Input
Amino acid sequence: MHRRSKQPGLPGRRSRHRRSLTALAVACAAPLLCLPLTATDAGALTPPVSLTADDLSTWQTNGVVYALAQADGTVFAGGTFSAIRPEGTGAGDAAERSAVNFAAFDAATGAPTGCSLSFTVGSGTATVRALAVSPDGRTLYVGGYFGAVNGVGASSLAAIDIASCTPRADFRPSVPATVRALAVTGSTVYFGGDFTSVNGSTRQRFAAVDTGGDLTSWTANADAPGRAVEVTADGQHVAVGGDFFTVNGSDSHALAITDATSGAVTRAYPRGFFPDTSVVKDITADATGVYTANEGTGGGVFDGRTAFEPDTFAQRWRDTCLGATQALQLYKGLVYSASHAHDCSSMGEYPDGQRRHLLAEGVSDPRLVGWAPDTNDGIGEGIGPRVFALAPKGGTDYLWVGGEFTTVNGTAQQSLTRVSSGPDTGAPTVPQVRVESLDPGRVAVHWRSSYDTDDSDLTYRIYKDGGTTPVQEIPASSLPWSRPQLTWTDTDVSAGETHSYRISASDGTNTSGKSAAQSVQVASAAAAYPSAVRGDGASLYWRFNETSGAYAADSSSGDDSGVHWNAPSQAVADAAAGSGSSVGYTGSQSEWTYSDKLHDAPSAFSLELWFKTTSTNGGKLIGFANKVQLASTRYDKHVYMTNGGQLVFGVYPGSVRTISTLQGYNDGKWHHVVATEGGDGMKLYVDGSLRASNSFVTGNQPGSGYWRVGGDNLDSWTSKPTSRYYTGLIDEVAVYGKVLSSSQVLAHYKLGTGAS
Output
């Protein structure tokens, strides 16, 4: 869609290694280990990230920005808008200035320059869709749909003398339809769009003119719109992208490599390489290769990024995140992308749910790295960011982002923003902490790791009893979408004492505030019920004792914390098994708790929790599913309640298999439920007694997933209740990677009720 200033690509070697989660839990087995330790601080901007995620003060537009380019520290923006205004102001503000589909800004300050151009058309809506600067930096080429520039006639393609900010009268090609993409060399202007002729000669969707506007012999006729064009690093080829299925008669869908002189197809990508419903929206290239940004519609689409070798143009990797990629920028070994990526589960990253609009990955390794500033979807088509430009000035590199967003990093900002190569000024989030003492002479300090949108390696400092010197420093890795629980155990304590703890997070340059102090009395004896749960091998154990926040601490050795989605009620004083508090769910379709870790489907397992309800709408208490923030499309290994209060335990080893109780349990009393499956079949216990079982169903649905509590999809299941989502209290949730025996189940029930 545009031609960016090139930055040399670096080898795709990753200098950061993700640590094993087991290495992140630190236990003080003796007082000596509880002495202050000095960890090497992570440096701001965790390599290979070389751009901050801190948005800088930037003027805005009142419409969509479709194109960006830069020359000598000036950034040009084009799109469909009529005015620009300062950061922090709304449309119609007194400081707003007229800007008809074009504006120019200082790359370093974000403020407008004196260059003002107006792109208009006699009928319809004028728009600027592509910008590119000549290699000598003297000429700005503009493509879109317009009939005049500052009142001077033009036909959807114009050349602007940058020094004088005036349209060049000697460049007047005739293009009777929208130009959507530009790439420029010293002698040739390549462009793509919706047109079928140029200067009266047949040119279908792609064409080239010389710097005087005369048509060249380069011909790359396509059967559907062109949306991207890029000259390869060696200058011998031109990559074209769009909606098409043929180029010069060759079977090549969405992408083709052509000869830079003739336009002959030198590498085709036949139908099937990309799905029919996927198109290429942007192409960028350097010495490391050629990279595409794809957008698709419907099921089975390709929405991500693809890397191709620089010489053979064979595919090197394909990123299969879903979410309409619009633009790419290469910078110091990473591919930065603009999209609304909502599902990267196929890449082993985050599942379908929250949209993330700005991401980065390696040129050789497509795994996502820790860079994730964000926008919203915005106005218009709801795409979000659409275009990049990298603009160096004064020793700093500025990455400009344009699109149709209306917020940046949660603050109002329309259609334009920018980040830079430094300095990094954003601190990590404050850690969310839970402190408990379940064993004599020991305090467990759990916390959900923080996130920093440009630093994935952080250092945590633990402060004790109001001290100003940390008693422990722990380095650990996290990403905005992967925030594992960390645990440090303090043994430099004595039974009966009361101690308080606070934690901060640092990226080596910026440090968060300290968490609120949490106090705990050191146990003199092991807590009976938790000791039984942990002793019997729970790998997830949520006691639900937090008073606020999204974090549900895991008291097992698995550090498998939970995330409360859309704020179910915490710190409910009515609790089970002596835990002190429980969580209340309202039956809302947007409220539940999910595990922060992705798990492989277990071959044997036990699910355990306490519940209390009077609901007659049923709902899911606990289950295993493939999504965390949306209703799942794959779900089983669950316990749910019918409208009548009966409990159903179900798995899906290729078909629905359930067992259920005869009695209802929606009587407003606390009840203990355990569901197990293994080599001996399925068993469902309530209040310590076996209520239903079979011996022949020993399998369940394969695939990775997350544990969810409080609700999820129940479509197609036996005795489906009115609601998928449970209304009532839940407490003491535990998951085991094995089958609990009947005696263990009974022992847990008795301990939880105080029965002898």
About this structure: The helical segments are 528-535, 742-753. DSSP finds two helices and 60 strands in the chain. Residues 223-372 form a domain with the Methylamine Dehydrogenase; Chain H fold (CATH 2.130.10.10).
